[in-house]
Amino acid sequence: MLHVCVSRRLPGHDPERIEALGADETLAAWRLHVQGVFHALHFDAAQNKGVVLIEAANANEARAALARLPVVRGGQIDFDVVALGPYARLETQFA
After folding, report:
1. 8 near 78, Cβ under 8 Å?
2. What's the DSSP call for residue 58?
3. How far is CA 46 from CA 8, 11, 34, 71, 91, in A?
């Protein structure tokens, strides 16, 4: 199942700490992408948020993958995780 995961900064986050974790974060995200865990990585420039598409069996598995990121482990950001499924109404409209 595909999951859309949108980052959010946690209360008390430290922008300098996030910046200091930048290289490690990039490497961790790249490794997860190469391993096929992260389907795609995007950035919402208007809201300064990362968006990750993860193929996982369930939301807990997606969260476990995100927990491998240094900024998550470091308590700086978390992610809102939305599981996507097929849009069933299309089928009922044209069946």
Report:
1. yes
2. S
3. 13, 20, 27, 21, 34
Residue ranges making up the domain that contains 80: 2-94
Secondary structure element (H or E) that encloses residue 20, with its range? helix 15-20
Number of domains forming the structure of the chain:
1
**Per-residue model confidence (pLDDT) at position 95:** 62
Distance CA 67, CA 85 (A): 23
What are the tens digits of pLDDT across the range 13-31?
A: 999 999 999 999 999 999 9
* Residue 50 β-bridge partners: 43
- What is the number of alpha carbons within 13 Å of residue 78 lying toward its C-beta? 6
The three-state secondary structure class of 38 is strand
Here the CATH number for the domain that contains residue 31 is: 3.30.70.1060
**pTM surpassing 0.90?**
no
